[in-house]
Amino acid sequence: xxxLIGCEESQAVTIELRKLGINAxxxxxxxxxxxxxxxxxxxxxxxxxxxGELLLQNGETVFIDKWMFTGLHPVCTKMTLSGNRHxxxxxxxxxxxxxxxxxxxxLWNYACSVSDHVYMENPLGAMxxxxxxxxxxxxxxxxxxxxxxxxxxxWLYNLPFLNHFNKTDLxxxxxxxxxxxxxRKLVKSDRVFSNWAYEMxxxxxxxxxxxxxxxxxxxxxxxxxQWSEFILNKQLETA
Length: 239
Description:
By secondary structure, the chain is an alpha/beta fold. It has a single domain (about 1-140, about 150-155, about 215-239), classed as Rossmann fold.
């Protein structure tokens, strides 16, 4: 089974899939920061989805006939709610948001046309009300063991919602939820931010976008374990 995780220089999901023995590859225009160039396609995501003979970051090539599973983590800077002061309707850069949304939806549609299973991840933002996409699953990092609050959307094609548990019952004896990391109120603006968002804002401007885009470890592990198991079971049912 060939799995492609697009727009993922961090390789967070790819590494978790590899741990499970899945033939997974990350893809991004940037060089990978996850430490595994031998499974990173440094190229345009549309070209990677096409398959065929693909060039890895380490200079080797791999032939992919078809991606059974494609994950997408498109750049969210222009689409997320936090970018409204620059990209909201009426702002000078609003046209850049519109272009970004169109590119992302085209990517989603193309991935769904060639892969059996697709997910797309992005923070709450401009795409949430777009009728061309399915209704997303809304999750938080603290649902899966990471003490942080960042409202995240998952659009899914032929995949189930990710399971997470905040209490036990007769059918479940585990809890995956933890504390949400807390929040703080800024004195000057009177605005309230999650501690995670505040910490991201304290980083140098040049590093904020990349740091904010990293997939939280708990979410990455849940994606890899739950969806690979789902796909494997589907394969066994049809064998």
